[in-house]
Amino acid sequence: MRRAASLLALIAMLVAVSSADARIPIRVGIGDQQAATFDQPAFEAAKFKRVRYFIHYNALDNEFQRLRAREYVKAARANGISVLLHLSSDDQGIKTARLPSVAEYRRQVRRIVAYFRPLGVREFGTWNEVNHASQPTYRSPTRAADYFREAYRAVKGSCKSCAVVALDVLDQTGVERYMRSFYRHLSPTYRKRATIVGIHNYSDVNRRRAKPFTGSIIRQSRAYLRSTRIWITETGGLVKVGSRFPCNPTRAANRLKTVFSPAHSYRRSGVERLYPYSWTGAGCDARFDAGLTNPDGSVRPGYKYLRTKLGSYLR
Asked: What pLDDT does 4 receive?
C-alpha cells in the first residue's frame, strides 16, 4: 500500500513537471502604476512575478513622484515580485516635453539607479516609448542612443548582472527609420551591448494589422545584433482612447486574444517577455484606459480572458 502511494506521488510529480515544461517559454508580467494593486485578491490570484513601472526621469527632484515610486517598488518586492523600472518623460503632452541634455540625463539616471538598486530593482529601461510624440525623444533617435549609453554605464557599473532595455519603441509608421538612426549612432561596442529591445504593439493588437510592425521591429533590431532579446513591454486591449476607441471593455477583451499570438509567433526570434498594460483602469472619462480592472478594483472581461491564458505561459 505504501509502495502504491509512493508510486502515485511520483507519477503526480512527473506530470506536474511535464506540464510546467510544456508551457510556452515567454514570461508574462503586468504593467501598472498603483501600489495598491498588490493587495487586490484578483492580482494575487494571477500570481504575477514581474511588473513594469515607468518613472519620470527626474522623479528624485519631486518628493511626490519619488515616494510614489518607492512605495510601489517596496510593495512589489514585499510580494516577491521583480520590477522593471522604465524612465520616461515628466510631460506627457504631445510635442510639448523638453528634451534633457545628455549631461542632465546622466546625472538623473545615476541617481535613480543608486536610489532603487538597494530596494531590489535589477532591471531598468533607458526611456519609455522613445518614438512617440508624447516623449521628447520622438525626433531625436541619436539622443535616445546617447541616453542608452549613459543608462548602461550607470546600471552595469554597479551591477554586472542587471538588465537594461536599450530601446523601447511604439509600433507606428517610421519606427524602422528611427531604429536605424539609433543603431548607427551607437559605437560598435554599444551596439553589442544593446541586447534588450522593448516593443509597444498596441496598434498591431487593436487594429489587427495584416502586416504587423512587431515583426519589422524585431527584424530591424536583430539586423544589428542577432542575439537581441525582445520584451513586449506594453501591449493590451484598448478600453478607451479618445474618440478612435470609444469605451468598450468587451472589445478590449477580444483584442487581448491578439496579444499572445504575435509573441508566440516570434518566440524563436527572441521574444522573452510580455507585459500587458495596465492592471488598473482609469475609467471611461479618461483619455486612455487599457485596464484589466475597473478603478474600484472589480475585474473586467479582459482579466477573465487573461486568466485563461496565463497557465500556458511562464511567469
From this structure: 52
Reported as type and span, the H/E element at residue 54 is strand 50-56
What are the backbone angles phi and psi of residue 312, rounded to the nearest 5°? -90, -5
- Residue 86's closest CA among 229, 215, 197? 197
Is the pTM of the predicted complex or chain greater than 0.85? yes
Task: Compute CA 24 distance to the chain's CA centroid, rounded to the nearest angstrom.
Answer: 18
Q: Which amino acid is present at 285?
A: D
Cell numbers for 40 = 487586490
Q: Look at residue 49 and tell me whether its pLDDT is greater than 90.
A: yes
Grid coordinates representing 145?
542612443
Tell whether the torsion through CA atoms of 121, 158, 136 and 129 is positive or negative.
Answer: negative
Contact 129, 89 (CB under 8 A): no
Q: Percent of the chain scored above 70 by pLDDT?
A: 93
For residue 41, the model assigns a pLDDT of: 96
DSSP-assigned beta bridge partners for residue 198: 168, 231
Distances from the Cα of 187 to the Cα of 54, 142, 192, 240, angstroms? 27, 12, 9, 41
**DSSP state at residue 277:** B
Provide the pLDDT for residue 209.
Answer: 83
Q: What DSSP assignment string belongs to 208-237? A: T-SS-HHHHHHHHHHHH-TT-EEEEEEE--
Which residue is listed with cell 512589489? 76
Rounded CA-CA distance 137/175 in Å is 13
Nearest alpha carbon to residue 234 among 206, 202, 211? 202
Q: Is residue 213 packed enough to be buried (19+ CB in 10 Å), middle (13-18) or exposed (0-12)?
A: buried
Residue keyed to cell 524612465: 87
Rounded to whole angstroms, the Cα distance separating 47 from 261 reads: 22
For the record, the C-alpha cell of 76 comes out as 512589489
Contact criterion met (CB below 8 Å) for 295 and 280:
yes
